[in-house]
Amino acid sequence: MLLQAIPYAFDGGLIIRSNDLWERQVTRRKNGRVLLGMAWTRTSQAYGYAFFEGKCDWNSLYFRREFRDRMAFCSTMLHDAYRKNWEPVVGAKDDLERINKALD
Asked: What mean pLDDT value characterizes the chain?
């Protein structure tokens, strides 16, 4: 899911249609299983912009182990999508590191 969210951040995709990005929990109709979303509604209301909560391991490009089996999308799908958007993601990550250093 993390990687599927990246095109929305960089390409301006149809972000409004993806509940998996905006909701904290998503219930699948097929089996009724409750999965974790990215909670952008909560983060955008709380901080003024939507961001990825601490569910991601940015070094391995997978969801952190404690969330991995409950995320709305599998990590391997995200890993493949991430590779397609490698340059803009690395640029954004580098920008975030510079901002964090400036704030320290």
From this structure: 76
8 A C-beta contact, residue 22 and residue 38: yes
Residue 81: CB atoms within 10 A of its CB come to 18
pLDDT score recorded for residue 11: 46
Domain ranges of the chain: 2-103
Decide: 54 and 64 in contact? Cβ < 8 Å.
yes
Q: Where are the alpha helices (DSSP H) in the chain?
A: 2-11, 19-22, 40-47, 65-68, 75-84, 86-103
pLDDT: which is higher, 3 or 98:
98
Contact of 76 with 1, CB cutoff 8 Å: no
Average pLDDT over residues 72-76: 63
With contact defined as beta carbons under 8 Å apart, do 41 and 22 qualify? yes
33 is written with which tokens? Answer: 């299983």
